[in-house]
Write a structure and sequence with these properties.
By secondary structure, the protein is of the alpha+beta class. Helix content is about 25%, strand content about 30%. The chain has one domain (about 25-155): Jelly Rolls, CATH 2.60.120. It has three helices and ten strands, in the order ββαββββββββαα. The protein is globular and about 45 Å long.
């Protein structure tokens, strides 16, 4: 389960139990509240398998949370090989580049199955983050989970030979 620690000022912090190896891992079940929040204020989109949500190089104006199904964040290596940088499932966030000023999408996102996502404009997310509260907390957990998963994928890719289908990513 999770441990609770009181922070000065009375705020409650939640920490997942650490596994035997001592590494803290974000819990996917903690991403559920993000879907609940975004579904009440975001625009709903239904995607068919192989349908593209956004394309690398276009302006990053929306942030998405996956409610159902699976999407893949697709990147291109320097050698021109397409590879999956992140597999997003329910509760995962895509399009976080929209949090940066004048950003463009660094990857494309494509549905790997029937999927439902909720979309919020970058300005809406920014305003909600400035307010703090539950939205900021659950978004931080979802983004931390995404970073952890991307790091795990990069570690696996670094140990694979260049012709393994990962396009030699990341470069040595």
């Amino acid at each position: 389960m999770s441990k609770r620690t009181s922070e000065p000022g009375g705020q409650i912090l939640r920490f997942p139990d650490r596994p035997a190896d001592g590494l803290r891992r974000p819990r996917s079940s903690q991403a559920g509240p993000l879907v609940d929040i975004w579904s009440s204020i975001g625009a709903r989109s239904v995607l068919a398998p192989s349908q593209v949500l956004f394309v690398a190089g276009e302006p990053a104006e929306h942030i998405y949370v996956v409610a159902e199904g699976k999407l893949a964040a697709l990147c291109m290596s320097a050698e021109g090989h397409r590879f999956v940088s992140f597999e997003a499932g329910p509760g995962d966030v895509l399009g976080e580049a929209a949090l940066l000023p004048a950003a463009v999408c660094r990857s494309s996102a494509e549905a790997q199955s029937h999927a439902v996502v909720f979309r919020l404009r970058d300005a809406t997310v920014g305003a909600l983050l400035r307010e703090g509260g539950e939205f900021a907390e659950v978004l931080a957990v979802a983004l931390s989970r995404r970073l952890w998963m991307a790091e795990q994928r990069a570690r696996r890719a670094a140990s694979e030979p260049p012709d393994s289908g990962l396009g030699g990513w990341p470069p040595a």
